[in-house]
Each structure stands twice: as structure tokens, then as C-alpha cells.
């Protein structure tokens, strides 16, 4: 009953908050993140404290296509979509175990679509959208429980004895209207739908899929969620109460979508791509990639082909915009650190460098630890390499 009442309250709340205007009282407490024109900066001045992790290669730990990385209790958990398995490594890269339960049996999955870590209970939450089930493992890879669902899930987090499901797929993904029209769904411990909140403001999207719209802080159990194309980033506390945390304020030459434009955005694969069209017209778009670090937040406005990064300093409230494609400095370093961010921890970022990029850049990098590391691991039998680093906030 409390979830139903909670849902009704927030349906009313967000129905009256469709205009993402800073004057709206619901947004008055949100922090303003200025979108400025990209600054001119060298990659050598931005990246600092570089460290490297080589993943041990054995007959059981040779990785193919790394899709996700999570860190819990000094262990690295890596989803390899090609191998359809979760690989567990120590923090320094020693192989521990592979989770591989492929099959048609009651305790077997067809394909892992995504996974999250449950820091509070030290568990792994694997989702299989094909069989519509959740597979829960302990931190060492032992299967604890299989939970059947009535819908396909991708990003699903353990929460208050149940789960939160985040709308991350194309339109008409769910059979229930209450799930289709709202971004976040509350599930009980058995995987049953209980309530929804945060209205979906992109009702016409078709083939658009987002994968990085949440960031979980294990210290306070809070989640940051950035709806597709939205100008507001929301905070969800450990009791599932939701608040506007950041609102973007445009001070750049880019254009942002109005609520009306966002509701009318359509993407039909092979037929119509309004995302690419809008970007070519000077719009700054986002799938909603947000990273919550100790001292600042990083918002990645991914658009279609030309990503921009917005860094927000929590202590000063100052934000800067960086276009990674127009960075100055060493070209090889620019290309290396333009790779996708897979995980954050404290003030550190983790990038996974595919072998083709290692082969291309190993001999071109400036002399030093990073170049030596890539050269020593540039073999056909190496695993993809992990780079851990910090970013020095631009002055």
C-alpha cells in the first residue's frame, strides 16, 4: 500500500513539473549545472594519476567483448557478452572465477543482458531479458536465487528487499501501461510490479536504447538518474524518495530540446533518425550518462556521434564543458582516453582498452609507464586492458 500511495503522490508531483524551468518550485532546490561552450585544454593537463590493471589470462578467463564492469569488495566483476559470462578478478587482475550458467534449465540463463552489484548484501544481480528472469549470486559467484519476471529487464537494482527497474529499452517494451508511461518501476522481492514513478517524457522513441542512465553511490545508497534527453538529473534516496538534484542551464551556443521537442523525438532504425538530425542542427543531446564522484559529477552528453563531457565541481558549483574530439596534446593519449568510461570509484575512472586500440597506440604513446604497459600486453592472447586514472578539474 505504501508503494501505491508513493506512486500516486509522485504521479501528481511530476505531472505538474513538465516545464523544466528553474522558476518551478519543485526545481528550486536543484543545483544548476551550466552548459558552457567547450574549453580549450590539453589531454596532458586533464588526465592524472594513471594506473593500469592487466587481467590474468587462463583457459577459463580469456575475455571477448567486455560490456560492463563493477567493483565490489576489492573484486572486479566483468560482463563478457561474447562469452555470455561474468568473470571475477581481484583488484590487481588475478582471475578468481567465471559465472557461466547457460542453458534451458531452471537455474540457467539464456543470455545475460546486464548486471548490477548489491553493495548492501554483497550480491550480484544478473538479468536475462530472454527468459525474463533475475539471477542472484553471492560475491564469490555462487547462485543464491532465481526470480521470474513478467517482463524483460535490463538495469535492475536491489532495493529495500525488492528491486527498482529502470526503463532503458525501446518504446512498447512493457505490456503494462503504468510501466510504459513511467521511467522507474518498483518491484517486490518476488519480482512483481508494485508501482511506477517519474513520468516518461519521450513517449515516441522507438529503437532508442540507453545503458548508462544511473549511478549508484554505495556510501549513502543513493542513485542518480538522468532521463533520456532530459534537462534534469534526479536523486533517488534509499527510501525511494525522488528529488531533482541537478538542472542544466544552457549558457552555450548549443541548443537544448524543449519539453515539446523531447516528447516528439522519434528514432526508427533504418527509417528515421531525429537524434542525428538534431545534433547536426546544433542540439546537445544526451542518453543520460551520469557519474557521481566524490568531488565532482561528470555528465556525458553522448548525442549520436559527437560526445561532450560536462564536469561539475561540487564544492564550487563551477562546471566546464569539454569536447574530447577537440582536445589538445598528444593525439594517441586523446584517442586512448576517449574510450568509454566503464566505472568510477572515489575520484577515479576506469576505462577498458580493447586490443585493437592497444595494437594501434602501444608504440605511439609518450615514453613512460602507460606505454610500457600497453607494449608488454600487446599480444593476441592478452585480455583487454584496464586503465584507472583521475581527472584534474580544469582551473
CATH architecture: 6 Propeller
Overall mean confidence score, pLDDT: 87
Counting helices, strands and paired strands, the structural category is mainly beta
Beta content comes to 35-45%
Keywords:
27 strands, mainly beta, five-stranded mixed sheet, four-stranded antiparallel sheet, 395 residues, Neuraminidase, 14% helix
Topology:
Layout: H1 2-15, E1 31-35, H2 43-46, E2 47-53, E3 66-72, E4 75-80, E5 85-90, E6 95-99, E7 114-118, E8 123-128, E9 133-138, E10 143-148, E11 155-159, E12 162-166, H3 177-180, E13 182-187, E14 193-199, E15 214-217, E16 222-225, E17 232-236, E18 242-250, H4 259-264, E19 267-268, E20 272-273, H5 274-280, E21 289-292, E22 296-301, E23 308-313, E24 319-322, H6 331-336, E25 341-345, E26 348-353, H7 355-361, H8 369-376, E27 385-391
Parallel strand pairs: 1-18
Antiparallel strand pairs: 2-27, 3-4, 4-5, 5-6, 7-8, 8-9, 9-10, 11-12, 12-13, 13-14, 15-16, 16-17, 17-18, 19-20, 21-22, 22-23, 23-24, 25-26, 26-27
Walk me through what this model shows.
The protein is mainly beta. It has a single domain, classed as TolB, C-terminal domain (Neuraminidase, 6 Propeller), CATH 2.120.10. The protein is 14% helix and 37% strand. The model is unreliable at 1-23 (pLDDT under 50).
Amino acid at each position: 500500500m505504501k508503494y501505491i500511495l508513493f506512486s500516486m503522490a509522485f504521479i501528481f508531483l511530476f505531472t505538474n513539473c513538465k516545464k523544466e524551468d528553474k522558476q518551478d518550485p519543485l526545481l528550486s532546490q536543484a543545483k544548476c549545472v551550466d552548459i558552457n561552450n567547450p574549453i580549450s585544454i590539453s589531454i596532458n593537463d586533464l588526465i592524472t594519476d594513471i594506473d593500469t590493471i592487466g587481467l590474468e589470462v587462463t583457459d577459463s578467463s580469456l575475455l571477448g567483448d567486455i560490456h560492463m564492469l563493477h567493483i565490489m569488495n576489492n573484486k572486479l566483476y566483468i560482463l563478457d557478452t561474447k562469452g555470455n559470462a561474468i568473470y571475477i578478478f581481484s583488484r590487481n587482475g588475478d582471475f578468481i572465477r567465471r559465472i557461466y550458467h547457460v542453458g534451458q534449465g531452471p537455474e540457467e540463463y539464456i543470455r545475460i543482458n546486464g548486471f548490477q552489484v548489491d553493495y548492501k548484501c554483497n550480491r550480484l544481480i544478473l538479468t536475462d531479458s530472454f527468459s525474463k528472469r533475475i539471477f542472484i549470486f553471492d560475491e564469490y559467484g555462487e547462485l543464491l536465487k532465481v526470480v521470474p519476471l513478467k517482463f524483460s529487464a535490463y538495469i535492475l537494482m536491489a532495493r529495500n528487499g525488492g528491486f527498482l527497474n529502470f526503463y532503458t529499452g525501446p518504446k512498447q517494451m512493457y505490456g503494462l501501461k503504468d510501466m510504459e508511461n513511467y521511467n522507474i518501476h518498483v518491484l517486490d522481492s518476488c519480482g512483481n510490479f508494485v508501482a511506477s514513478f517519474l513520468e516518461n517524457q519521450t513517449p515516441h522513441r522507438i529503437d532508442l536504447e540507453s545503458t548508462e542512465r544511473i549511478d549508484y553511490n554505495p556510501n549513502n545508497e543513493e542513485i542518480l538518474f538522468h532521463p533520456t534527453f532530459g534537462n534534469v538529473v534526479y536523486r533517488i534516496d534509499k527510501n525511494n524518495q525522488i528529488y531533482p538534484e541537478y538542472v542544466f542551464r544552457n549558457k552555450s551556443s548549443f541548443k537544448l530540446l524543449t519539453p515539446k521537442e523531447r516528447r516528439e523525438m522519434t528514432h526508427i532504425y533504418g527509417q528515421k533518425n531525429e537524434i542525428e538530425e538534431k545534433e547536426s542542427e546544433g542540439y546537445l543531446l544526451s542518453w543520460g550518462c551520469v557519474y557521481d564522484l566524490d568531488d565532482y559529477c561528470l555528465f556525458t552528453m553522448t548525442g549520436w556521434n559527437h560526445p561532450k563531457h560536462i564536469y561539475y565541481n561540487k564544492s564550487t558549483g563551477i562546471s566546464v564543458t569539454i569536447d574530447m574530439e577537440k582536445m589538445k596534446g598528444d593525439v594517441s593519449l586523446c584517442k586512448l582516453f576517449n574510450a568509454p568510461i566503464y566505472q568510477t570509484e572515489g575520484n577515479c575512472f576506469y576505462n577498458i582498452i580493447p586490443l585493437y586500440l592497444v595494437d594501434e597506440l602501444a608504440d605511439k604513446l609518450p615514453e613512460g609507464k602507460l606505454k610500457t604497459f600497453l607494449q608488454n600486453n600487446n599480444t593476441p592472447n592478452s585480455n583487454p586492458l584496464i586503465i584507472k586514472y583521475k581527472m584534474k578539474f580544469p582551473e
